[in-house]
Amino acid sequence: MRVLGIETSCDETGIAVFEGERGLLAHAVYSQVEIHGEYGGVVPELASRDHVRKTLPLIRQVLEEAGLSKDCIDGVAFTAGPGLIGALLVGAAVGRSLAWSLGVPAIGVHHMEGHLLASMLEEPAPAFPFIALLVSGGHTQLVEVEGIGCYRLLGQSLDDAAGEAFDKTAKILGLPYPGGPALAKLAEEGDPKRYRFPRPMTERPGLDFSFSGLKTFTLNALEREMAKTNDPDRTRADIARAFEEAVIDTLVIKSRRALCQSASRRLVVAGGVSANRRLRARMEQMAANEGGEVFFPRPALCTDNGAMIAFAGWQRLRAGQAEPLAFEPRARWLMEELPPVRACRGRR
Ligand code: KG4
Ligand code: ZN
Q1: Tens digits of per-residue pLDDT, 244-258?
Q2: Does residue 306 have its Cβ closer than 6 Å to ligand 1?
Q3: Ligand 1 pocket residue status of 297, Cβ below 6 Å
Q4: Which domains does the chain show, CATH number per domain?
């Protein structure tokens, strides 16, 4: 079965074709960075309009790269939520009508399930059950995963998501949008020993996160230190590094806690922030110390892409799930509401 995946939940148009036997046949991502850059963040209406312009040409390009005509597609998967409603509507309308015109089934995919399953596109793929840490621009969640659609939320951010904290702090540091990768780059030059920022909520039991205080802490540190430094570039880099260390350390501490409470020794880390090199290295180290294993998607599949949507859609379509002709994208959508693909052991 060959599935076309369409991702348009935010500021990237992602298209891919996944096939059961041969895996990922082709994928391409078009980023709207230049459009939103001058506004310092995503402008929803501009995002929707650009998805309208890019989705069909990108589908043509990906089919051509895969050496396929559209008649070779057996199913269409599109991101149905969560995300920007106008942006979601574009991918859903294109995906649903394309499936109708080809006479094949369509499925609306949960964006975070896409991220969660992306590591299964890699070798070796994680076996169920595992613990997943999802870290994106909109979500920070620890999830117990028993199978596809069998998700139990263990903890989540009570305020800003990890990626959102990176983006907002990058703005405070005067870095361009998108802030996360820019902050990570600046932090490379920073001295990790000069400042130590708090690791929020790690002293208390539980698996929830809170990152908004860290952003304010960074702002205060920046104002205080810049007033007295003779080397502002060095100080900014050291502050960026202290912020990055604090976020990563917090994510590592809570992931270790989740692993220790679980019967599984496997941890999956996914979503945009999992592209962060230092986060990957620190998680590897922690998992090795705990006698466990950590799995990530390749960096290009950590941030938003069509491959994860094609793959998650393929898993559900081959299990016989599909959408009726009426589709309903959802700006908000809990992952635990998803139907299981196979019966979960004991739980549901
Ligand atoms: O998953 P994603 O592409 O989109 C959402 O679903 O939100 O995640 C985007 C987030 C942004 O906040 C971005 O700044 C962050 O991931 N990000 C990073 C890095 N690459 C992307 N954060 C830290 N370090 C990175 N290397
Ligand atoms: Zn995402």
Answers
A1: 999 999 999 999 999
A2: no
A3: no
A4: 2-117+301-337 (3.30.420.40), 128-296 (3.30.420.40)
